[in-house]
Amino acid sequence: MYLDYAATTPVDPGVVKAMLPYFGKYIGNSMSLHQQGMKVAEAVEKTRRIVAKILNAEGEEIVFTGSATESNNLALKGVAEANPNKKKIIISSIEHDCVEKSAQSLAKKGYKIVRIGVDKNGIINFDELKKAIDKETLLVSIIHGNNEVGTIQDLKKIGELCSKNGVYFHTDASQSFGREKIDVKEMKIDLLTASAHKIYGPKGVAVLYVRNGVKINPILDGGGHEGGLRSSTVNVPAIVGLGKAGDIMIKKIKKENFKIKKLRDKLIGGILAKVSDCWLNGPKINRLANNVNISFDRVEGESLLLELNAKGIMCSTGSACSSNSLEPSRVLMAMGLTEPEAHGSLRFSLGRRTSDKDINYVLKILPKVVEKIRKISPFKK
Questions:
Q1: Annotation says 98 is catalytic
Q2: Average per-residue pLDDT in the chain?
Q3: Which is catalytic among the residues 98, 162, 315, 321?
């Protein structure tokens, strides 16, 4: 039972089929001026148009990168380097590690980093953000759909605030791209990160939307690919896969979200009914359709994860990028949980292949596993 779609999704068969010709039949470099080069360049531009359509952006505003981590690094560091006169950057306290660590890197270079707090559901304190923005503020970076607890932020409200104050607004939309409606024009978003492998596309390709007029420098030096912002020979098969995955999502997402939300709510309701002393992290309604994050009192999340894995249930204790860390989740701690409570959390993330049978199996096995671990747990009521 694969319930870790927030970490990565399986590649859709239609995506694989679309990619295959670009491994052998069409082999040109997209910068080459011969027939093969022009053929693959057109394939790249087709994907650029598909991504732009999803975001209501212009094609030339779409930059292809190698990962969401790279896109987030480029957004923060590239904007900072291009605008050296402002030295204040605002992020939330629940950003993905690649945004948090990019901010830490900039702090070492003299930038003031302000982290906006969140409430118990992971919603940012808007009044705190409003007070933090001043004439020294260069950029605000707030994650859209949180990768751990699924909380969805109000991008339009944040974007309008930033626009009013002449501040760049970046959002990491890796978990929400293709799943939630995003209109970069209406929401006044200046920079946005998205990733292929979260929407049934291949790993190794991602997007940074950069609004026309944003001052940003590249962080890689080279041949000037992607409008000069991302030098490197473009990964044509992966970009084609991203385009196909996006095209499929456009057609399927409404029906797919309806199905997944029903399964998500069944899983949440079933766990809360069948297991004592546990609770949902994040809001009940304003959350990603596929996200379930539960804390279990008197249980170590790692122990629970391993026991479930032995029973064929694959989930996560938090962000996959931080799963080898023994530290409690920064996100859950920012939401007010104690260290033991944060350590006792599990993230189930559902997807296209998740079935009612899968959910029934989890609801059968999970209560027994929790009971087993609590009997030998040193943590008592």
A1: no
A2: 94
A3: 321
